[in-house]
Design a protein that fits this description.
homodimer, two-stranded antiparallel sheet, 15% helix
Chain lengths: 231, 231
Amino acid sequence: LIAGKNEKNLFEGAIDLTHELANGMPVYPGDPVPSFKRTKTVAHDGVNLSDLNLGSHTGTHFDAPRHFFEDGVPVDKIPVKDFISDALVLDLSFKRMGDGISSEDLRKAISSTGSELKAGDSVILYTGCSDLWGKDPAVNSNFTYLSGEGAKYLVSKKVKAVGIDFLSIEQFHSKTHETHKELLGNGVYIVESLNRELKKILGKRVLFMFFPLKFENGDGAPCRALAVPLS
Amino acid sequence: LIAGKNEKNLFEGAIDLTHELANGMPVYPGDPVPSFKRTKTVAHDGVNLSDLNLGSHTGTHFDAPRHFFEDGVPVDKIPVKDFISDALVLDLSFKRMGDGISSEDLRKAISSTGSELKAGDSVILYTGCSDLWGKDPAVNSNFTYLSGEGAKYLVSKKVKAVGIDFLSIEQFHSKTHETHKELLGNGVYIVESLNRELKKILGKRVLFMFFPLKFENGDGAPCRALAVPLS
């Protein structure tokens, strides 16, 4: 496929960017508390079965335009090819936790990759907040976010999707939701709560794949997300 | 990657093999009835959010070895590279609905593809039952299945995963679960309830990707499944 790698070699290096869905996992403050329960067991019933109860934005998940726009496309109507793209993994961990990422920050991070951001590429933002996932509840309401101005810059660069490594891409408890609206309103998808495995691929070009549940008219959905290093 | 296609061309042709998760959708008789509910709306709350309540084997889903073996690997401990493989899409729709697929049936279907089944390939079984998904409840308890003998054949061929286009790969209400146990006990993964889009790729070699939710210690999980035609 890329750089002379064959398919087998390529996917052997796939990195799982997905958090475990588990009882007690972090959620955006105010979101429903998910519950995962074994309902049948091999010992008693000959088979293991479980029930899953969770909000549409639990754990590593996808935001569809329908999240903020009643006429925006829902998760089940997006062609699966849109869930696969090249991406640059940007290191924004120089930002102070709780601060907003600006276009200047993005340009600096892109420049330091030595690679070019092309139309149709995605970007994945590593803020470092993922290092505190499940370890420090304070960060759940004080995480680094993408500013509205930074979002406008990424829209102007015609990116396909923006991933980030914590609960939301928006400033905590924003009243205006300008970042979500700028991205989703311009057809740029969002993936939130990627895990700290991103540290293995900082500054790299990757094949980014995220596969949300096909939830009818869904505003968003939990997904499996992975990256295949290309450079 | 394959046959001179570049990455962009390749994924443009991706076919979604996943059923919509929706209220009223078919489930294996006796399984929990899933529920999907909008909990916040743009009109009232400025944002759309939803709750998802579903069994671990709802809709298009993945069976991990933990489904039938307490010491089998759960869905969250399987490396993501295992969710990506070449597959042959086999047309078994010549079988009478409700009958079991034998090794002879499989050999016949493989032979008619003109392609060879190699160790590490997956197979996807199209039975035609998917054409009746949500249309004829009678098929929900009388679908074509893979016999234990057929499962043994696929294990002997060292396949990676077996997909099928209806609620279960096992004879309805089997007491012995021989098909699941033969496959999962030998490390062969199972994907059930693929949709009828398979008809577009019958007899073809595809890149088969399925991405189950990363549910901790999960016996299985809903997944997004897709196929990228290679031939």
